[in-house]
Protein backbone atom coordinates (compact mmCIF):
# COMPACT_ATOMS: atom_id res chain seq x y z
CA UNK A 1 0.00 0.00 0.00
CA UNK A 2 2.86 2.38 0.77
CA UNK A 3 6.17 2.65 -1.02
CA UNK A 4 8.44 2.80 2.01
CA UNK A 5 6.91 1.20 5.06
CA UNK A 6 9.59 2.68 7.32
CA UNK A 7 8.61 6.26 6.57
CA UNK A 8 5.41 7.25 8.39
CA UNK A 9 2.85 9.04 6.30
CA UNK A 10 2.27 12.71 7.06
CA UNK A 11 -1.14 13.51 8.48
CA UNK A 12 -3.41 14.77 5.75
CA UNK A 13 -7.06 14.86 4.86
CA UNK A 14 -6.68 11.81 2.65
CA UNK A 15 -5.57 9.69 5.64
CA UNK A 16 -9.12 10.12 6.87
CA UNK A 17 -11.07 10.06 3.61
CA UNK A 18 -9.18 7.08 2.17
CA UNK A 19 -11.27 4.62 4.18
CA UNK A 20 -14.57 6.27 3.36
CA UNK A 21 -14.35 6.29 -0.40
CA UNK A 22 -11.15 5.42 -2.27
CA UNK A 23 -10.31 2.36 -0.16
CA UNK A 24 -13.73 1.68 1.30
CA UNK A 25 -13.26 -1.56 3.27
CA UNK A 26 -16.38 -3.29 1.95
CA UNK A 27 -17.01 -1.83 -1.49
CA UNK A 28 -13.41 -1.44 -2.70
CA UNK A 29 -11.18 -3.72 -0.59
CA UNK A 30 -13.92 -6.37 -0.17
CA UNK A 31 -12.91 -6.99 3.44
CA UNK A 32 -15.20 -7.88 6.34
CA UNK A 33 -17.85 -9.33 4.06
CA UNK A 34 -19.03 -11.82 6.68
CA UNK A 35 -20.56 -9.25 9.06
CA UNK A 36 -21.46 -7.03 6.10
CA UNK A 37 -23.68 -9.76 4.69
CA UNK A 38 -24.86 -11.28 7.96
CA UNK A 39 -25.89 -8.35 10.14
CA UNK A 40 -27.07 -5.91 7.48
CA UNK A 41 -30.65 -7.21 7.43
CA UNK A 42 -31.96 -4.14 9.24
CA UNK A 43 -30.64 -0.60 9.29
CA UNK A 44 -30.33 -0.48 13.08
CA UNK A 45 -28.39 -3.77 13.24
CA UNK A 46 -26.11 -2.47 10.49
CA UNK A 47 -25.54 0.80 12.33
CA UNK A 48 -24.82 -0.93 15.64
CA UNK A 49 -22.42 -3.35 13.99
CA UNK A 50 -20.69 -0.49 12.17
CA UNK A 51 -20.24 1.49 15.37
CA UNK A 52 -18.99 -1.51 17.34
CA UNK A 53 -16.46 -2.29 14.61
CA UNK A 54 -15.39 1.37 14.47
CA UNK A 55 -14.74 1.35 18.22
CA UNK A 56 -12.59 -1.78 17.96
CA UNK A 57 -10.76 -0.35 14.93
CA UNK A 58 -9.98 2.88 16.76
CA UNK A 59 -8.81 1.33 20.02
CA UNK A 60 -6.76 -1.44 18.47
CA UNK A 61 -5.27 0.99 15.93
CA UNK A 62 -4.13 3.35 18.67
CA UNK A 63 -2.74 0.60 20.89
CA UNK A 64 -0.94 -1.19 18.05
CA UNK A 65 0.55 2.11 16.94
CA UNK A 66 1.73 2.86 20.51
CA UNK A 67 3.31 -0.58 20.80
CA UNK A 68 4.76 -0.67 17.29
CA UNK A 69 8.36 -0.23 18.43
CA UNK A 70 8.01 -2.80 21.24
CA UNK A 71 6.43 -5.71 19.37
CA UNK A 72 8.98 -7.95 17.60
CA UNK A 73 8.23 -8.91 13.98
CA UNK A 74 7.90 -12.59 14.81
CA UNK A 75 5.00 -12.27 17.26
CA UNK A 76 3.26 -9.26 15.80
CA UNK A 77 0.18 -11.06 14.43
CA UNK A 78 -0.37 -12.87 17.73
CA UNK A 79 0.01 -9.58 19.59
CA UNK A 80 -2.45 -7.79 17.29
CA UNK A 81 -5.01 -10.55 17.76
CA UNK A 82 -4.74 -10.31 21.56
CA UNK A 83 -5.19 -6.54 21.37
CA UNK A 84 -8.18 -6.85 19.02
CA UNK A 85 -9.78 -9.62 21.07
CA UNK A 86 -9.43 -7.48 24.20
CA UNK A 87 -11.38 -4.60 22.69
CA UNK A 88 -13.99 -6.91 21.22
CA UNK A 89 -14.59 -8.35 24.71
CA UNK A 90 -14.91 -4.81 26.05
CA UNK A 91 -17.47 -3.96 23.33
CA UNK A 92 -19.30 -7.17 24.14
CA UNK A 93 -19.66 -6.19 27.82
CA UNK A 94 -20.46 -2.60 26.93
CA UNK A 95 -23.32 -3.57 24.60
CA UNK A 96 -24.75 -5.91 27.24
CA UNK A 97 -24.63 -3.02 29.70
CA UNK A 98 -26.24 -0.58 27.23
CA UNK A 99 -29.07 -2.76 25.96
CA UNK A 100 -29.78 -6.47 26.16
CA UNK A 101 -32.21 -6.07 23.25
CA UNK A 102 -29.42 -4.88 20.98
CA UNK A 103 -27.16 -7.63 22.27
CA UNK A 104 -29.82 -10.19 21.40
CA UNK A 105 -30.21 -8.72 17.90
CA UNK A 106 -26.51 -8.78 17.08
CA UNK A 107 -26.06 -12.28 18.46
CA UNK A 108 -22.77 -13.99 17.78
CA UNK A 109 -21.52 -11.32 15.39
CA UNK A 110 -20.14 -9.11 18.15
CA UNK A 111 -17.62 -11.79 19.14
CA UNK A 112 -16.86 -12.38 15.47
CA UNK A 113 -15.49 -8.83 15.11
CA UNK A 114 -12.23 -10.45 16.28
CA UNK A 115 -11.82 -12.15 12.93
CA UNK A 116 -12.93 -9.18 10.84
CA UNK A 117 -10.06 -8.74 8.39
CA UNK A 118 -10.48 -4.96 8.23
CA UNK A 119 -9.18 -4.61 11.77
CA UNK A 120 -6.21 -6.95 11.47
CA UNK A 121 -5.53 -5.51 8.01
CA UNK A 122 -5.42 -1.94 9.35
CA UNK A 123 -3.23 -2.98 12.30
CA UNK A 124 -0.75 -4.71 10.01
CA UNK A 125 -0.81 -2.34 7.04
CA UNK A 126 -1.18 1.01 8.74
CA UNK A 127 -1.20 1.30 12.54
CA UNK A 128 2.02 -0.67 12.99
CA UNK A 129 3.88 1.71 10.66
CA UNK A 130 2.48 5.11 11.56
CA UNK A 131 2.17 7.59 14.41
CA UNK A 132 -0.67 7.31 16.89
CA UNK A 133 -2.55 10.31 15.51
CA UNK A 134 -2.37 9.00 11.95
CA UNK A 135 -3.46 5.56 13.08
CA UNK A 136 -6.40 7.08 14.95
CA UNK A 137 -7.52 9.24 12.03
CA UNK A 138 -7.10 6.43 9.53
CA UNK A 139 -9.01 3.96 11.72
CA UNK A 140 -11.78 6.52 12.17
CA UNK A 141 -12.03 6.93 8.39
CA UNK A 142 -12.11 3.17 7.88
CA UNK A 143 -14.73 2.82 10.60
CA UNK A 144 -16.90 5.50 9.04
CA UNK A 145 -16.43 3.83 5.65
CA UNK A 146 -17.45 0.45 7.07
CA UNK A 147 -20.47 1.93 8.85
CA UNK A 148 -21.43 3.72 5.62
CA UNK A 149 -21.22 0.47 3.67
CA UNK A 150 -23.22 -1.39 6.34
CA UNK A 151 -25.90 1.28 6.19
CA UNK A 152 -25.98 1.16 2.37
CA UNK A 153 -26.73 -2.56 2.63
CA UNK A 154 -28.94 -2.38 5.71
CA UNK A 155 -31.23 0.41 4.54
CA UNK A 156 -31.93 -1.19 1.17
CA UNK A 157 -32.46 -4.64 2.67
CA UNK A 158 -34.76 -3.42 5.42
CA UNK A 159 -36.86 -1.23 3.12
CA UNK A 160 -37.33 -3.99 0.54
CA UNK A 161 -37.39 -6.96 2.90
CA UNK A 162 -39.50 -5.65 5.77
CA UNK A 163 -41.04 -2.44 4.42
CA UNK A 164 -39.61 -0.51 7.37
CA UNK A 165 -36.69 1.83 8.04
CA UNK A 166 -35.12 1.78 11.52
CA UNK A 167 -38.25 -0.11 12.59
CA UNK A 168 -40.66 2.57 11.29
CA UNK A 169 -43.20 1.25 8.81
CA UNK A 170 -42.92 3.01 5.45
CA UNK A 171 -45.60 1.61 3.18
CA UNK A 172 -48.49 0.84 5.50
CA UNK A 173 -50.00 -2.52 6.41
CA UNK A 174 -50.82 -3.56 2.82
CA UNK A 175 -47.17 -3.80 1.79
CA UNK A 176 -46.12 -7.37 1.10
CA UNK A 177 -42.44 -7.48 2.15
CA UNK A 178 -39.95 -8.97 -0.28
CA UNK A 179 -38.69 -11.40 2.35
CA UNK A 180 -35.74 -12.71 0.34
CA UNK A 181 -33.86 -9.46 1.02
CA UNK A 182 -33.67 -10.02 4.78
CA UNK A 183 -32.53 -13.59 4.15
CA UNK A 184 -28.88 -14.38 3.31
CA UNK A 185 -29.37 -14.51 -0.52
CA UNK A 186 -30.74 -10.97 -0.41
CA UNK A 187 -27.51 -9.82 1.19
CA UNK A 188 -25.55 -11.12 -1.78
CA UNK A 189 -27.92 -9.51 -4.28
CA UNK A 190 -27.71 -6.10 -2.65
CA UNK A 191 -23.94 -6.33 -2.21
CA UNK A 192 -23.58 -7.22 -5.90
CA UNK A 193 -25.73 -4.23 -6.80
CA UNK A 194 -23.56 -1.83 -4.77
CA UNK A 195 -20.31 -3.34 -6.12
CA UNK A 196 -21.65 -2.89 -9.64
CA UNK A 197 -22.46 0.74 -8.89
CA UNK A 198 -18.96 1.35 -7.49
CA UNK A 199 -17.35 -0.34 -10.49
CA UNK A 200 -19.34 1.84 -12.89
CA UNK A 201 -18.36 5.01 -11.01
CA UNK A 202 -14.70 3.96 -11.04
CA UNK A 203 -14.79 3.21 -14.75
CA UNK A 204 -16.37 6.55 -15.59
CA UNK A 205 -13.80 8.36 -13.50
CA UNK A 206 -10.96 6.55 -15.32
CA UNK A 207 -12.42 7.44 -18.70
CA UNK A 208 -12.76 11.08 -17.66
CA UNK A 209 -9.19 11.15 -16.34
CA UNK A 210 -7.82 9.65 -19.54
CA UNK A 211 -9.75 12.22 -21.55
CA UNK A 212 -8.41 15.08 -19.46
CA UNK A 213 -4.82 13.85 -19.72
CA UNK A 214 -5.13 13.60 -23.47
CA UNK A 215 -6.26 17.21 -23.76
CA UNK A 216 -3.62 18.72 -21.46
CA UNK A 217 -0.39 16.76 -21.13
CA UNK A 218 1.18 19.41 -18.90
CA UNK A 219 -1.41 19.18 -16.18
CA UNK A 220 0.37 17.94 -13.08
CA UNK A 221 -2.64 17.62 -10.83
CA UNK A 222 -2.70 14.34 -8.95
CA UNK A 223 -6.09 12.66 -9.13
CA UNK A 224 -7.73 12.43 -5.72
CA UNK A 225 -9.33 9.10 -6.40
CA UNK A 226 -8.50 6.45 -8.93
CA UNK B 1 0.23 -11.03 5.03
CA UNK B 2 3.84 -12.19 4.58
CA UNK B 3 6.76 -10.49 6.20
CA UNK B 4 8.08 -7.64 4.16
CA UNK B 5 11.63 -8.60 3.10
CA UNK B 6 12.76 -4.97 3.27
CA UNK B 7 11.86 -4.63 6.93
CA UNK B 8 13.22 -7.92 8.31
CA UNK B 9 15.33 -7.29 11.38
CA UNK B 10 18.98 -8.29 11.00
CA UNK B 11 19.23 -10.66 14.01
CA UNK B 12 16.18 -12.50 15.32
CA UNK B 13 15.41 -11.50 18.91
CA UNK B 14 15.82 -14.01 21.71
CA UNK B 15 12.88 -16.21 22.65
CA UNK B 16 12.67 -14.54 26.04
CA UNK B 17 12.01 -11.19 24.37
CA UNK B 18 9.18 -12.72 22.34
CA UNK B 19 7.68 -14.46 25.34
CA UNK B 20 8.05 -11.29 27.39
CA UNK B 21 6.27 -9.17 24.78
CA UNK B 22 3.40 -11.59 24.40
CA UNK B 23 3.16 -11.99 28.18
CA UNK B 24 3.14 -8.25 28.70
CA UNK B 25 0.42 -7.73 26.11
CA UNK B 26 -1.60 -10.59 27.57
CA UNK B 27 -1.35 -9.10 31.08
CA UNK B 28 -2.41 -5.69 29.79
CA UNK B 29 -5.29 -7.30 27.93
CA UNK B 30 -6.34 -9.22 31.04
CA UNK B 31 -6.32 -6.05 33.11
CA UNK B 32 -8.44 -4.18 30.57
CA UNK B 33 -10.99 -7.00 30.29
CA UNK B 34 -11.17 -7.47 34.07
CA UNK B 35 -11.67 -3.73 34.60
CA UNK B 36 -14.46 -3.60 32.02
CA UNK B 37 -16.07 -6.67 33.54
CA UNK B 38 -16.04 -5.07 36.99
CA UNK B 39 -17.37 -1.77 35.67
CA UNK B 40 -20.22 -3.25 33.65
CA UNK B 41 -21.16 -6.21 35.89
CA UNK B 42 -23.70 -4.41 38.07
CA UNK B 43 -25.32 -2.80 35.07
CA UNK B 44 -25.52 -6.09 33.11
CA UNK B 45 -27.01 -7.95 36.09
CA UNK B 46 -29.50 -5.12 36.53
CA UNK B 47 -30.42 -5.33 32.82
CA UNK B 48 -30.86 -9.10 33.06
CA UNK B 49 -33.07 -8.74 36.15
CA UNK B 50 -35.18 -6.09 34.42
CA UNK B 51 -35.47 -8.21 31.28
CA UNK B 52 -36.55 -11.22 33.34
CA UNK B 53 -39.02 -9.10 35.28
CA UNK B 54 -40.48 -7.79 32.02
CA UNK B 55 -40.60 -11.31 30.59
CA UNK B 56 -42.47 -12.66 33.64
CA UNK B 57 -45.21 -10.06 33.29
CA UNK B 58 -45.24 -10.56 29.53
CA UNK B 59 -46.11 -14.26 29.78
CA UNK B 60 -48.48 -13.63 32.70
CA UNK B 61 -50.33 -10.57 31.38
CA UNK B 62 -53.07 -10.68 34.01
CA UNK B 63 -50.65 -10.62 36.93
CA UNK B 64 -49.86 -7.44 38.82
CA UNK B 65 -47.63 -8.99 41.49
CA UNK B 66 -45.15 -11.80 41.41
CA UNK B 67 -43.29 -14.02 43.84
CA UNK B 68 -40.24 -16.17 43.16
CA UNK B 69 -40.12 -19.81 44.17
CA UNK B 70 -37.52 -22.51 44.28
CA UNK B 71 -38.79 -25.94 43.37
CA UNK B 72 -37.12 -29.32 43.91
CA UNK B 73 -38.01 -32.84 44.98
CA UNK B 74 -38.48 -31.71 48.58
CA UNK B 75 -40.96 -28.97 48.00
CA UNK B 76 -41.70 -25.45 46.89
CA UNK B 77 -40.02 -22.63 48.79
CA UNK B 78 -40.77 -18.94 48.51
CA UNK B 79 -37.63 -16.91 47.85
CA UNK B 80 -36.73 -13.39 48.84
CA UNK B 81 -37.43 -10.86 46.11
CA UNK B 82 -33.82 -10.12 45.16
CA UNK B 83 -33.15 -13.79 44.39
CA UNK B 84 -34.61 -13.38 40.91
CA UNK B 85 -31.78 -15.25 39.22
CA UNK B 86 -31.92 -18.41 41.36
CA UNK B 87 -35.66 -19.00 41.23
CA UNK B 88 -37.01 -21.96 39.32
CA UNK B 89 -40.41 -20.39 38.78
CA UNK B 90 -42.36 -17.19 39.31
CA UNK B 91 -45.97 -17.12 40.38
CA UNK B 92 -48.15 -14.23 39.24
CA UNK B 93 -51.06 -12.83 41.25
CA UNK B 94 -53.70 -10.26 40.39
CA UNK B 95 -54.80 -7.34 42.56
CA UNK B 96 -57.11 -9.44 44.70
CA UNK B 97 -54.28 -11.86 45.45
CA UNK B 98 -55.56 -14.71 43.31
CA UNK B 99 -53.03 -16.83 41.41
CA UNK B 100 -53.17 -16.08 37.67
CA UNK B 101 -50.40 -18.37 36.48
CA UNK B 102 -46.83 -19.53 36.83
CA UNK B 103 -43.84 -18.50 34.71
CA UNK B 104 -41.23 -21.23 34.20
CA UNK B 105 -37.89 -21.25 32.38
CA UNK B 106 -36.86 -23.82 29.82
CA UNK B 107 -33.91 -24.23 27.51
CA UNK B 108 -32.83 -26.32 24.53
CA UNK B 109 -30.16 -26.31 21.87
CA UNK B 110 -31.03 -24.06 18.94
CA UNK B 111 -29.36 -23.39 15.61
CA UNK B 112 -26.37 -21.49 17.02
CA UNK B 113 -26.48 -21.79 20.78
CA UNK B 114 -28.81 -22.62 23.65
CA UNK B 115 -32.21 -20.95 23.40
CA UNK B 116 -33.59 -19.98 26.82
CA UNK B 117 -37.32 -19.38 26.99
CA UNK B 118 -39.79 -18.36 29.68
CA UNK B 119 -43.35 -19.61 29.44
CA UNK B 120 -46.53 -18.93 31.34
CA UNK B 121 -48.54 -21.89 32.65
CA UNK B 122 -52.09 -21.77 33.88
CA UNK B 123 -52.80 -24.35 36.61
CA UNK B 124 -56.52 -23.90 36.15
CA UNK B 125 -56.61 -24.51 32.40
CA UNK B 126 -53.57 -26.81 32.38
CA UNK B 127 -52.08 -25.16 29.35
CA UNK B 128 -49.16 -22.96 28.35
CA UNK B 129 -50.45 -19.45 27.93
CA UNK B 130 -47.45 -17.49 26.68
CA UNK B 131 -43.82 -17.83 25.63
CA UNK B 132 -40.98 -15.38 25.33
CA UNK B 133 -37.27 -15.78 24.59
CA UNK B 134 -34.87 -14.88 27.40
CA UNK B 135 -31.61 -15.59 25.64
CA UNK B 136 -30.69 -16.70 22.14
CA UNK B 137 -28.04 -16.25 19.47
CA UNK B 138 -30.30 -17.28 16.62
CA UNK B 139 -29.86 -15.76 13.16
CA UNK B 140 -31.25 -12.24 13.11
CA UNK B 141 -34.27 -12.10 10.81
CA UNK B 142 -34.75 -15.90 10.80
CA UNK B 143 -34.52 -17.79 14.08
CA UNK B 144 -35.19 -14.78 16.24
CA UNK B 145 -38.67 -14.52 14.75
CA UNK B 146 -39.93 -17.12 17.29
CA UNK B 147 -40.20 -14.17 19.64
CA UNK B 148 -41.95 -11.71 17.33
CA UNK B 149 -43.89 -13.69 14.71
CA UNK B 150 -47.60 -13.30 15.60
CA UNK B 151 -48.58 -16.59 13.92
CA UNK B 152 -45.98 -18.47 15.96
CA UNK B 153 -46.96 -16.71 19.16
CA UNK B 154 -50.57 -17.78 18.49
CA UNK B 155 -49.42 -21.34 19.29
CA UNK B 156 -49.18 -20.28 22.91
CA UNK B 157 -52.69 -18.98 23.45
CA UNK B 158 -53.46 -22.28 25.14
CA UNK B 159 -50.89 -24.97 24.33
CA UNK B 160 -52.12 -28.23 25.84
CA UNK B 161 -49.94 -29.38 28.77
CA UNK B 162 -52.32 -31.60 30.75
CA UNK B 163 -50.90 -34.06 33.25
CA UNK B 164 -52.08 -37.66 33.46
CA UNK B 165 -54.37 -38.78 36.29
CA UNK B 166 -51.43 -39.61 38.60
CA UNK B 167 -49.80 -36.25 37.84
CA UNK B 168 -46.50 -37.91 36.90
CA UNK B 169 -46.15 -36.96 33.25
CA UNK B 170 -47.75 -35.02 30.43
CA UNK B 171 -50.65 -36.75 28.70
CA UNK B 172 -49.34 -35.57 25.34
CA UNK B 173 -45.76 -34.63 24.61
CA UNK B 174 -45.37 -31.10 23.29
CA UNK B 175 -44.00 -31.37 19.76
CA UNK B 176 -43.11 -28.96 17.00
CA UNK B 177 -44.60 -29.84 13.63
CA UNK B 178 -43.87 -28.46 10.17
CA UNK B 179 -45.41 -25.15 9.22
CA UNK B 180 -49.12 -25.56 8.48
CA UNK B 181 -49.28 -29.15 9.78
CA UNK B 182 -50.65 -28.37 13.25
CA UNK B 183 -53.76 -30.44 14.02
CA UNK B 184 -53.79 -30.85 17.82
CA UNK B 185 -53.65 -28.46 20.72
CA UNK B 186 -50.33 -29.85 22.02
CA UNK B 187 -48.54 -29.22 18.74
CA UNK B 188 -46.50 -26.15 17.85
CA UNK B 189 -46.74 -24.88 14.29
CA UNK B 190 -43.14 -24.12 13.20
CA UNK B 191 -42.10 -20.98 11.33
CA UNK B 192 -40.98 -21.85 7.82
CA UNK B 193 -37.36 -20.75 7.51
CA UNK B 194 -36.82 -21.10 11.25
CA UNK B 195 -37.55 -24.79 11.70
CA UNK B 196 -34.57 -25.51 13.94
CA UNK B 197 -35.32 -22.70 16.36
CA UNK B 198 -39.04 -23.56 16.39
CA UNK B 199 -38.13 -27.15 17.25
CA UNK B 200 -35.77 -25.90 19.98
CA UNK B 201 -38.66 -23.97 21.55
CA UNK B 202 -40.75 -27.16 21.44
CA UNK B 203 -37.98 -29.20 23.06
CA UNK B 204 -37.42 -26.59 25.74
CA UNK B 205 -41.13 -26.54 26.62
CA UNK B 206 -41.47 -30.32 26.55
CA UNK B 207 -38.39 -30.92 28.71
CA UNK B 208 -39.17 -28.25 31.24
CA UNK B 209 -42.90 -28.99 31.43
CA UNK B 210 -42.48 -32.74 31.90
CA UNK B 211 -39.91 -32.11 34.63
CA UNK B 212 -41.43 -29.19 36.53
CA UNK B 213 -45.20 -29.60 36.18
CA UNK B 214 -45.56 -32.95 38.06
CA UNK B 215 -43.55 -31.51 40.97
CA UNK B 216 -45.51 -28.27 40.81
CA UNK B 217 -48.81 -30.11 41.08
CA UNK B 218 -47.56 -32.03 44.09
CA UNK B 219 -46.60 -28.90 45.99
CA UNK B 220 -48.95 -26.33 44.48
CA UNK B 221 -50.50 -25.51 47.87
CA UNK B 222 -47.48 -23.33 48.64
CA UNK B 223 -48.44 -21.05 45.75
CA UNK B 224 -51.68 -20.08 47.48
CA UNK B 225 -50.18 -19.34 50.88
CA UNK B 226 -50.66 -15.66 51.38
CA UNK B 227 -47.54 -13.98 52.62
CA UNK B 228 -48.36 -10.43 51.73
CA UNK B 229 -45.08 -8.93 52.93
CA UNK B 230 -43.10 -11.00 50.43
CA UNK B 231 -45.05 -9.68 47.47
CA UNK B 232 -43.58 -7.17 45.11
CA UNK B 233 -45.18 -4.78 42.72
CA UNK B 234 -43.91 -4.53 39.17
What would you say this structure looks like, in words?
The complex is a heterodimer of chains A (226) and B (234). In chain A, a hairpin with a 2-residue loop joins β1 and β2 (168-169). Chain A has one domain (13-169, 178-194). Helix content of chain A is 62%, strand content 2%. By secondary structure, chain A is mainly alpha-helical. Chain A has helices at 13-20, 33-38, 43-66, 76-98, 100-106, 117-125, 132-162, 184-215, and strands at residues 164-165, 168-169. Chain B has helices at residues 15-59, 145-148, 150-153, 195-218, 221-224, and strands at residues 65-72, 75-78, 89-93, 99-109, 114-122, 127-135, 159-160, 175-177, 187-189. Chain B is an alpha+beta fold. Chain B has one domain (44-224). The longest helix of chain B has 45 residues, at 15-59. Chain B has a seven-stranded antiparallel β-sheet. A two-stranded parallel sheet of chain B has the order 8-9. Chain B starts with 14 loop residues before the first helix and ends in a 10-residue tail after the last helix. Residues 228-234 of chain B have low confidence and may be disordered. Chain B has five helices and nine strands, in the order αββββββααβββαα. At the A-B interface, α4, α5 and α6 of A face α1 of B.
Amino acid sequence: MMKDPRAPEALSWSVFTQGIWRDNPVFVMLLGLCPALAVSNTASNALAMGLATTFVLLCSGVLVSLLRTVIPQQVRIASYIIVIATFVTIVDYAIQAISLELYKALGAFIQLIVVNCIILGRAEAYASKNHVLNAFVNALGMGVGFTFAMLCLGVVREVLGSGTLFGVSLFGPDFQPWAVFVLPPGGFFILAFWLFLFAVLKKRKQVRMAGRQATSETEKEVPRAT
Amino acid sequence: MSRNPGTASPAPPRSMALIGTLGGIAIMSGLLVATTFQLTRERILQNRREALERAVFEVLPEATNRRSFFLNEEGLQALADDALGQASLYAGYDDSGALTGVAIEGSARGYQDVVKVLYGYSLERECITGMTVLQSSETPGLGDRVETDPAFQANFECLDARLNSESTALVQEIVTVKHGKKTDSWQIDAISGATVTSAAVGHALQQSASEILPLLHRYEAALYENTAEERTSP
